[in-house]
Amino acid sequence: MNRRPLLPSWLPVDGYVLALLGTVGLAALLPASGKAATVAEAAATGAVALLFFLYGARLSTREALDGLRHWRLHLTVLGCTFLVFPLLGLAARGLVPAVLTPQLYSGFLFLCLVPSTIQSSIAFTSIARGNVPAAICAGSFSSLAGIVLTPLLAAALLGGSTGGLSADALLRIVLQLLVPFLLGQALRPWVGGFLTRRKKVLGYVDRGSILLVVYTAFSQGMVAGIWHLVTPGRLALLLAAEAVLLALMLALTWYGAGKLGFGRADRIAIQFAGSKKSLAAGLPMASVLFGAHASLAVLPLMLFHQMQLMVCAVLAKRRARDPEPTDTATAPATPAPGPAEASAEAPVSASPAGPGRIAPPSPPR
Theoretical Cys-Cys bridge with 271: which of 93, 103, 253, 260, CB 3.0 to 4.6 Å? Predict the structure, then answer.
C-alpha cells in the first residue's frame, strides 16, 4: 500500500533549504562568539575556497568552449542574468524605505547579481520537453561568468554594503574565489577523474561547507543584534517584491525569447535558465563580499530560491502538456555542473530516449 505524500507534487519543498533554515535556527539559539566565532570564520573561509576549487576541478573547459556554438541562446541567458536582473534590482531602489529596509534592499539587489542555477534549470527544462543540452551549457556558462561578474557587480552597485572596490575587497575576491577556481582548473587533468568517482561523498562536503558558511554568517548577525531590523511585516513585503521580480523575469524570458526568433525548445531553456538564481553560488560569495552583514544579505536569496522552485515546478508541468513541438534544435556539448550546484539542486539522470534528452527527474528540490 502506497503512502500518500505529505506534500503535493506540484509544491516541492527543497530539503536543502530546510537544512539551511535549521542552520539559521541553530545560529539563533547557539551563535558562535568569541574564540568559537574566530574558529568558525576561519573554517568558513576555507570552505568557500574549497567549493570554488572543486568547481574549477570539475568544469571541463573544452566542453564549455564547444558549447559556444549555440552562442545566441547563451548570450540571451547571460543578458537576462547579468543585465536585466540587475536593472530590475536597481529599479527596486524605489521600494526603500516603504517596502524594503536598506539592509533588505542590499540583499534583494545582491540576489539579482548572482549567476543562474545549473541542475534545477536542467530538471525543469527536461520536464517541459525543452532543449536540455542548451540548459546545461547556459547554466554552466552563467556560473563560470558569475565567478568574476557577480563580485565586480556587487562591489560596484552595492558600494558601502560590500566595502566598495577597495584593494582589500578585491584581494579577498581573488584569493577566496578566483585563485581556488583557477587552481582547480589547472589540476583538473590529475584530480578530475578522482572527484568524478566520488561525487556522492563530495556532495556531502559541498553541502556541509555551505551550511558552515550560513551558520557563521547568521551567528555574526545574532551577535551584532541586527535581527531587530526584520519584522514579520517586512518579510511579507520582501516576499511580495520577490514574487513580482520572478513573475517579470519569467514573462520577459519567455516572450522576449519568442521575439528574438527562438523556437519552443530554446525558449523553455532560456526561461528556466534565465529566470533563476543560484543559492549554492550566492551563499559563499555573500560571505566573502558582505562579511559580518552577510546574514541579512543572503536572506532574500534563500527566500527567492524556494519560491523559484515552487513556481517553476508548476510551470514546467504545464509546459509538458503543450502539443508536441515541431522544433528540435539542440545545443552541442554538455559541460559538467559544478559541485556546489549539484549538491543544492535537483539530480538529473540520462535518458535512454535518445541523444539530447534527459529523463524528467523526481520533483526538483
Answer: 253
Residues 6+ apart with CB under 8 A from 82: 113, 115, 145, 146, 149, 153
Output the pTM of the full model: 0.73
pLDDT 10s digits, 119-167: 788 888 988 989 888 887 888 888 888 888 998 898 888 865 554 445 5
